[in-house]
Specification:
single chain; 66 residues; four-stranded antiparallel sheet
Length: 66
Amino acid sequence: MTPATVRLFVIDSDVWTVYEDRRDGPLRLGPALIFENDRVARRVRHYPANWLDLSDVQLRALSWSR
């Protein structure tokens, strides 16, 4: 899958990629934001519609939510 909208941000010299995953399927529970770096991936199901406009610090905080 190639997401249409991808955003990169840097926190503590780690480059993160964040994108919206809207795929459906038997194990999917609706849309989610996916946060990835070279060591970890996080899925956030509840996020604001304006997530692309958030600052890097706000995205970092959001990546720790569920």
